[in-house]
Write a structure and sequence with these properties.
The chain is of the alpha+beta class. Helix content is about 45%, strand content about 15%.
Length: about 90
């Protein structure tokens, strides 16, 4: 298994995993249960998304797309221009 994404939070990790699985790449969220021990503190670096070694190249392409959409959504929220319709579930 190869960690291809270090998530800022558990939600981002699951978004990445779901996108990978939608692309036909099995993925696993590692460290998800560690965040419960942290409480209100930021749990940076604890949660990662892993894929099989032979799926790394395909997974990295999906990762780039997901990171771009997350960055766009965060920028829109920061600019107060967020339209939930642009980012369907």
């Amino acid at each position: 298994m190869k960690a291809i994404y270090q998530a800022e939070n558990i939600i981002d990790a699951h978004l990445m995993r779901d996108a990978l699985e939608d692309a036909g790449i099995p993925a696993y969220v590692s460290g998800a249960y560690l965040t419960g021990a942290i409480g209100e503190l930021a749990a940076s670096g604890l949660v990662s998304v892993m894929v099989a070694n032979d799926a790394e190249d395909a997974a990295l392409k999906v990762k780039v797309e997901v990171e771009q959409r997350l960055a766009e959504a965060r920028a829109a929220i920061a600019d107060d221009d967020f339209d939930p319709g642009l980012y369907p579930a």
